[in-house]
Structure prediction request, 279 residues.
Amino acid sequence: MTLSNSLADLHLDDSIQLELSNGILRLWLNRPESRNAMSLAMVKAIQQVFTAIQDDQSIRAVVIRGKGGHFCAGGDIKDMSQLCGEAMNIGSNQPYVDFNRQFGAMLEQVDQAPQTVVAVLEGVVLGGGFGLVCVSDVALSLANAKLGLPETGLGIIPAQIAPFVVKRIGLTQARRLALLGNRFDGHAALQYGVIHEVVEHEAALELSLSLVIKQIKRTAPHASRVTKALLHQTLTEPLKTLLDDAAQHFADAVSSSEGIEGTLAFVQKRDPNWMDEEK
Prediction:
């Protein structure tokens, strides 16, 4: 499948697979033999992709899911074993620090991506995989998926994941899930606010995804990017500054070609031209 110019020159290993069609990039976690556990190579590959598409407005959304019936089982134990050897050789825990922090940088990059990020959940969704869900814009899940933060039961901590989990579901729920390490299904994930929709079988999951993609394509490309950035700013900017900036963004949007076309399409009761471009 032909990739956009922003992706064509990437040299990725086979830990992920990419499929691009009509502005939708499907990013497959591709280590089914380990239930798509996240290796350092996978983390770096995901970062490469999101760096490459940062300014590519032809890519409207990124759909992340796992090969082999599982989303992601968390961090790769083999990588951790290798890090143990490196730490012993140099007499320092710095290799653990570097590995863990790079995973957090990847989560932050996905979180801030201008594209709409959709996570599609099946099988196990644990640890790092759970963190990846928490930085998605839309999350869909099978009812029998198994989600959780098992770190404390393994004698480690959800170090880079924790801030994103708290932002996603609030401190009260995050404390219980992280400190007890319970696993839960898609219905509970919906109740906690981790995901947005739960379905009972594969066919329903595919249908739900297709409807989400259709809705994404109905939104104006630039307006969608600006809106996502604005939503992130609500967590960090003082209210007055935020509202001042938002007013300017609104004025820019109304007077833009997208704003003019969207208003005209509404009055004329037709689809806006960016939907024609996506067909």
